[in-house]
Amino acid sequence: xxxxxxxxxxxxxxxxxxxxxxxxxxxxxxxxxxxxxxxxxxxxxxxxxxxxxxxxxxxxxxxxxxxxxxxxxxxxxxxxxxxxxxxxxxxxxxxxxxxxxxxxxxxxxxxxxxxxxxxxxxxxxxxxxxxxxxxxxxxxxxxxxxxxxxxxxxxxxxxxxxxxxxxxxxxxxxxxxxxxxxxxxxx
Length: 187
What we know:
By secondary structure, this protein is an alpha+beta fold. The chain has one domain. It has helices spanning 2-7, 20-24, 37-45, 86-91, 99-106, 120-126, 143-156, 163-175, and strands at 46-48, 51-53, 57-59, 62-65, 70-73, 78-82, 115-119. The protein has a three-stranded antiparallel sheet. It has a two-stranded antiparallel sheet with strand order 2-3. Keywords: Endonuclease, Hydrolase, Nuclease. It comes from Streptomyces venetus. This is HNH endonuclease family protein. Residues 67-170 form the GmrSD restriction endonucleases C-terminal domain.
């Protein structure tokens, strides 16, 4: 993981002009099957599949939230988290992207590390924080996993880290020997 962290470009963050909805849009139905990105992630990550009716209405089912090591029954208690939050992506270089690329980022399903079905409470606690201020506090056993995935997503999308974030990732990598970071290319 140390080698991957060292590849991350360092730059100051800038939130100028950020508006979540205007900048990244909402969930889309890329394959036009009636299920938007949120529903696709819920279906993919269910540990007990929900019942699907109508135009992708989900009921029942069970999900494991690795952010806090809990099982959640039913889709209502689940949020879909952008592992690297949209605001953080904006601050780290996405502000220079086209709107279409930002919509692609917000709805990216080709790498399961990018969007996570997690307990709504944990997702809201995390909000748009980076590992400097939020580091899986309710499940410390997953910190190496979280840091490796954070690093991978940042590298995939050629996003920068600020100096404090770099320090946190560097320290975390030292505490996670043997943790691999595999980067999959994005369009």
